[in-house]
Amino acid sequence: MQVLPFTDKENAALANYVPVYVMLPLGVITSDNEFEKPRVLRKQLKKLKKAGVDGVMVDVWWGIIETKPKSYDWIAYRKLFQMVKEEGLRLQAIMSFHQCGGNVGDVVFIPIPQWVRDVGEYDPDIFYTNRKGTRNQEYLSLGVDNLPLFGSRTAVEIYSDYMKSFRKAMSDFLEEGLITDIEVGLGPAGEMRYPSYPETQGWVFPGIGEFQCYDKYLQADFKAAATKAGHPEWELPDDAGEYNDTPDTTQFFGANGTYLTEKGKFFLTWYSNKLIKHGDQILDLANQAFLGCKVKLAAKVSGIHWWYKDDSHAAELTSGYYNLSDRDGYRPLARMLSRHYAILNFTCVEMRDSEQPAEAKSAPEELVQLVLSAGWREEIEVACENALNRYDKEAYNQMLKNARPNGINENGPPEHRISALTYLRLGDDLMKSSHLSLFKVFVKKMHADQDFCSNPEDYYKPIVPLERSESEFSIDYILEATEPKEPFPFDDETDMPVGGGFSYWIKALFTKFISMFKYFGTRWIMDEDSKMQG
After folding, report:
1. Which among 234, 356, 482, 484 is least buried, having the fewest CB atoms inside 10 angstroms?
2. Is residue 191 annotated as a catalytic residue, yes or no?
3. Is 278 annotated as a binding residue?
4. Residue 231 annotated as part of some ligand binding site
5. Any known ligand binding at 310?
6. Is 175 a catalytic residue?
7. What is the pLDDT of residues 500-515, one digit of tens each?
8. Average per-residue pLDDT for the chain
9. Active site annotated at which positions (predicted)?
10. Where residue 115 falls among pLDDT bands split at 50, 70, 90?
C-alpha cells in the first residue's frame, strides 16, 4: 500500500468527515412571528459551536410568514439568521408548508395560513381526507396542486412564490454561503408522504394508518385513471381498515389480500405515483427559485419502520411508499430526486431492531440500509436525522454506523457516507452537562476525529451554484427503479464508537465532583463570612 505524505494523510482522514447540524426548537420563531428568547438561544449556539457543530437547521413556517396572500414578513427570521452567522455556524432552511402540531415531537402549534384555511371552510376537499371523510389540515392535498382555488393561484404557485420571496429576502445570506441547504417540505411534518398516521385523529403506534385520498379531487383523479385503464368500475379501497388496525385484520393487507390483486396493484401504483409527481413538480419550482445559488436542495423521506417485516408493508403503503419484498419503493423517489440534484434526507437512523416491540414487526435497520442504498445507487447524496430525541451512546453509535456503513477509509473518501447528519433537537435536555459532554464526543466521531472544518471542499463535499434541473423524467423511466436490488453491505457496528463506558463515567463523575466542590466551597466561604460579620 502506498504511504502518503503527512499532509495527504490529513486530507485523507478529512475526507471521512460528516458535518453535523442541530435542529433548532420548533417555536424559535413564534406563531406571532417573534424571535423568542434570543439571549437564551445565543448561549446555546455558543455551546454548540464549542462542541464542534457545523450548523443548525430551522423550519421556516409558511403559516408565520405569509399571513396575507403574497405578503411576506421575514424580519424575525433575518434576526435569527444573523445570529447564526455571528456565532460562526451554517444553516439548513426548511420550506415548511405544513402545520406544526399533530405529529410526534410537536410541542407548539403553528397552523398553515388562515386565508388558506378559510378556503377550506367552503371547500374542505382541499385537505387530505380518509375514507370516513375526516379532514386533515396539516398540509394541502396534492389533489389541488394545479387547481386555482386560492385567489387566482394554484397550490404549487403559492409554494413557488414563497420560495422566490425567501430568496429575495435572504439574498445576502445566500451569497455569503450561510445557507447550505434548502429542504423543501412536501407533506406532513415536511416529509414527502401522505398524512396516514395522524395522532390528532387517534392513531397510535404501531397502527397501519389509513389511505388519504378520499377528497373529491383525488377521487376524481383516480376514477379518470381507472377509466383510462379500462376499469371504470374500480373504486378507491374500502377494505383497508382503520388507523390502529393490524394488517391481518384487514382484507386489503391480509394474506392474499387486495394489495396483491390487479385492482390493488393499480391503486397502489396510482397512489405512490401521485406522490412522486407532487415532489417532482415542487422541486422543479424550487430549482427555478434558487437557480445559481450555492445551495443544495433536499427532500425528507419518512422512516416508516413498523410492519416492515410483514409481507404487506402496510404502514409504508398507506404513507405512499409502495415498497414490498419484490418491489423497491424508495429507489424511484431517489431517481426523481436525481433530476434536481437533490439530497434524500432520511429519518430513524438512531434506531435498532432490538429496541422495537416484537408485535410491530419493525425493522428500522433494514429500512435504513435499503433507503440509503437506493440513494447511493441512483448517485445522489443522502443525509440523515434521528426520529426521536436520544442522548445515549447506543443511539449515537447507530448513527455513526449508518453515516459511514463500511467505516473509515484511511486513503480518502469512503465508498459510502452520508453528506450530513441533522441531530434532533436543541433544547434544555441536550444542554445538560452530561448530555452535552457525550454529544461533543459524538460530533468529534462524526468528524472522523478531525477538528472542525469550515470548508466543505476540504472534505470532498463542495457546494456549487445550483444548475437547472434535468429534463423531466418519464414515469416509466422512474418506475424502472422499482426493480429490487440487494442493499449495499453495512458493518454490524461502527469503527468509531463514542464509548460511554468506564472512561466516560469517570469523566462524568469528575465533572459532578467539581460541580459539588464549587457548590460546597461557595457555601463554606459564605458561612465563614457570616461568622466574621457576627
Report:
1. 484
2. yes
3. no
4. no
5. no
6. no
7. 544 444 544 554 455 4
8. 93
9. 191 (proton donor), 385 (proton acceptor)
10. very high
Of the candidates 191, 316, 365, 378, the residue annotated as catalytic is 191
Q: Which residues pair with 289 in a beta bridge?
A: none
CA distance 120 to 112: 11
Contact 399, 350 (CB under 8 A): yes
386 annotated among ligand-binding-site residues: yes
Answer yes or no: is pLDDT of 499 > 90.
no
Q: To which residue does cell 403559492 refer?
A: 158
Helical (H) or strand (E) element with 458? none
- pLDDT (mean) for 416-442: 97
Percent of the chain past pLDDT 70, that is, above it, reads 91
Question: What pLDDT, in 10s, does the model give residues 361-402?
Answer: 999 999 999 999 999 999 999 999 999 999 999 999 999 999
Q: Would the pLDDT of 532 be above 80? A: no
Closest by CA position to 126, among listed 190, 186, 212, 215: 215
pLDDT of residue 506: 52
Cα separation values, 31 from 8, 61, 67, 118, 484, Å: 50, 9, 10, 18, 44
Query: Which single residue is written with the C-alpha cell 383523479?
Result: 221
CA–CA gap between residue 145 and residue 140 (Å, rounded): 8
pTM of the model: 0.91
Is 106 part of any known ligand binding site?
Answer: yes
156 with 144: CB under 8 angstroms? Answer: no
State the pLDDT at residue 10. 66
SS3 category, 409? coil
- pLDDT at site 524: 52
The set of cell numbers assigned to 306 is: 413498523
The backbone region for 140, taken as left when phi is positive above 0, alpha when psi lies in -120 to 50, beta otherwise, is beta
Residues with Cβ within 8 Å of residue 30, at least 6 apart in sequence: 36, 64
